[in-house]
Specification:
The structure holds 2 protein chains of 2 kinds.
Chain A: H1 3-25, H2 33-40, H3 46-80, H4 93-106, H5 111-133, E1 134-135, E2 138-139, H6 141-165, H7 170-178, H8 186-204, H9 207-214, H10 217-222, H11 227-249, H12 255-267, H13 271-295, H14 304-329
Antiparallel strand pairs in A: 1-2
Helix pairs in contact in A: 1-3, 1-13, 3-8, 3-11, 3-12, 3-13, 4-5, 4-6, 4-7, 5-6, 5-11, 8-11, 12-13, 12-14, 13-14
Chain B: E1 4-13, E2 16-26, E3 31-36, H1 42-50, E4 57-62, E5 65-66, H2 72-78, E6 79-82, H3 94-99, H4 114-126, H5 142-155, E7 160-164, H6 172-187, E8 191-195, H7 199-205, E9 208-213, E10 216-221, H8 223-226, H9 229-236, E11 240-244, E12 251-255
Parallel strand pairs in B: 3-8, 3-9, 6-7, 7-8
Antiparallel strand pairs in B: 1-2, 1-4, 4-5, 9-10, 11-12
Helix pairs in contact in B: 4-5
Classes of the chains: A mainly alpha, B alpha/beta.
Chain lengths: ~325, ~260
């Protein structure tokens, strides 16, 4: 790895730690560094202990883990589908999750049950998309994108209909779908974190194979890559990671789309470097967004999806213009 | 022991039979040019040999090993493939691209060894692409790009190098440069099989010509044996005259003016 890239990694790592500390101290009640250190040394007062251990810590961990998971899935899906517009939701996962969550909310289930239902329905949706796209033994990536889009519109139509028929739950459904970590509990974390971490690591282990697929599926096969197997593994692991992320944080847009792009500009397309860097950057970005979500309209919170879109969109456009200038300059 | 043996090869896309029972063996490294009209099965034959397509019937042996029994990774150590047109939207450097040719020899988490780096450098120097090592692949011209992909194919240290219309997009200088280079490779022990559109270039540079017609091998042999006005008429349904290259007596096809 070059000197420049090691510098990026070190910076990102320090930023992540810093961001997490800031995030733990920020919110309706502000904590000083001393108060936090006391909690860590296990001699803090009960109030700061509760705030740090039961409220802030789980949500900071959740935002970092979800940011990591979505960015890594985004990087892999963009590569596998060879489509720069791909994100973790391209296969209809978000619509499936929203569908499950809507039903669970209407049925009056508790938060953990809502999360689990969303997880199950999102996987069911991907399974339908996958089944549609299978032609013989090979999976067509183009069909997958199209099927994902079609299933999404259909599912969102059903969701809108359900919302119309259950107006009293309207706000709750909207808030769930826009995403946020304000209600994250250790319980939800214990069920999702292992899925996200293991899934991410499984995908990462196929980095070199996906590099070859970036230059063409058929070409990759001639380099000894079992493309069909790699595609299946990435699709399954990526869907599990996304479903787990959505079930804990709702449908947080833009992270899985822009973080991989930004990272690709900084460290290049080699997945062996891009993936860990995206993981770090995604974690930083989402922790940052979650912190902002807490302080912009203090004492109330705004959905994190609004922050990611508001920051992500313009920043992405800035990068596109900058890249375009750079390329034309040569 | 033949390097390559094709035995009663049949292949169908769905119900459409594209290859209808092909048989041939190659015993020594040389350049074989495949010619034939569009849809005669040239590329399909190449992809069956590469193992990307599985024969519906019949077998292909490489050094007496049936390719059905080889894993995808093992196959990539015997055969490499240079496709017709490669589009890569991702900003890989040429060095990264050529290093991918070492993938069949590396385990999942194994970093590239010194020997891999040496081989990559050697292949890039051979193809005259070492100066592009830090250049992005999508900034190169067609001919340069093609040479980088040939370097990658060579980094696989193949016994057999398959090329699908390797020179179709290139100007005459690069066409001749690449075909001469390919001839060198054959002398160094690599069997090269290339689908070519230009019959005359094929005759000049290939040791043997394989003519495909309607999914069958019409003829296989030295250019001045198999290229005749009659065979061209049969394979392409056009009338041609032959003149001879005075330097090497190799036939040169010209369209008949009626």
């Amino acid at each position: 790895m070059s000197y420049k890239k090691s510098l990026y990694f070190t910076t990102a790592f320090i930023l992540l730690i810093l961001m997490m500390v800031i995030s733990i101290s920020t919110g309706a009640v502000k904590l000083t560094l001393e108060q936090m250190m006391n909690v860590l040394r296990n001699n803090g007062d009960n109030i700061s202990k509760t705030i740090v251990l039961n409220l802030r810590l789980p949500r900071v961990i959740a935002s970092a883990i979800v940011g990591m998971g979505l960015s890594v899935v985004g990087a892999f899906f963009q590569g596998l589908l060879r489509n720069p517009m791909a994100d973790p939701y391209v296969l209809g996962i978000s619509s499936g999750a929203a569908f499950g969550a809507t039903i669970a909310i209407i049925l009056g289930l508790n938060l953990l049950a809502i999360n689990i239902t969303a997880f199950v329905t999102s996987l069911a949706t991907v399974f339908v998309v996958y089944t549609i796209s299978r032609a013989g033994t090979r999976i067509s990536m183009t069909t997958m994108i199209l099927a994902g889009t079609a299933i999404s519109s259909f599912t969102y139509a059903l969701i809108s209909l359900m919302m119309l028929l259950n107006r009293e739950e309207f706000n709750k459904i909207i808030f769930w779908t826009m995403g946020g970590f304000n209600l994250t509990s250790w319980k939800a974390l214990i069920f999702t974190t292992p899925i996200i971490i293991i899934g991410t690591f499984v995908m990462y282990s196929f980095s070199r194979d996906v590099n070859a697929i970036l230059t063409g599926e058929e070409v990759a096969e001639h380099l000894g890559v079992n493309t069909e197997m790699v595609k299946k593994v990435i699709l399954i692991a990526g869907s599990l990671v996304t479903a787990a992320s959505v079930s804990i944080g709702g449908i947080i847009g833009f992270v899985g789309l822009i973080i991989p792009h930004i990272c690709r500009i900084l460290v290049g397309p080699d997945n062996r470097i891009l993936v860990p860097f995206s993981a770090l950057s995604g974690a930083i970005f989402l922790t940052f967004a979650d912190t902002l979500a807490r302080i912009i309209l203090k004492p109330s919170e705004i959905p994190i999806g609004i922050i990611t879109a508001a920051f992500g969109g313009p920043f992405f456009i800035y990068l596109l213009i900058k890249e375009k200038r750079k390329n034309e300059g040569m | 022991m033949p390097i390559l043996r094709v035995e009663n090869l049949h292949f169908s896309y769905g119900k459409k039979e594209v290859l209808k029972g092909l048989n041939f063996s190659v015993f020594e490294s040389k350049v074989i040019g495949i010619i034939g009209s569009n849809g005669s099965g040239k590329t399909t034959l190449l992809k069956n040999i590469s193992g990307y397509l599985k024969p519906t019937f019949g077998n292909i042996f490489i050094e007496d090993r049936n390719i059905r029994e080889l894993s995808i990774k093992e196959k990539a150590r015997y055969i490499s493939y240079v496709p017709q047109d490669i589009r890569c939207d991702f900003q890989f450097t040429c060095y990264d691209i050529v290093m991918m040719g070492r993938m069949p020899f590396l385990r999942r988490f194994q970093p590239e060894r010194k020997e891999d780096k040496d081989i990559v450098r050697k292949c890039m120097e051979m193809t005259n692409t070492w100066q592009f090592r830090d250049t992005m692949i999508n900034q190169l011209s067609g001919g340069e790009k093609q040479r980088v992909y040939i370097a990658r194919a060579l980094a696989q240290e193949p016994k057999i190098l398959l090329m699908d219309e390797p020179i179709s997009h290139l100007d005459i200088k690069y066409q001749i440069e690449i075909l001469s280079f390919v001839r060198e490779l054959a002398k160094q022990g690599i069997l090269v099989i290339a689908v070519l559109h230009d019959i005359n270039l094929a005759c000049q540079f290939c040791n043997e010509i394989l003519i495909m017609k309607d999914g069958r091998i019409m003829d296989l042999g030295r250019p001045n044996k198999v290229i005749t006005p009659k065979s061209i008429k049969s394979a392409f349904s056009i009338d041609v005259d032959l003149i001879e290259n005075p330097k090497n007596n190799i036939p040169y096809v010209v369209a008949s003016i009626v």
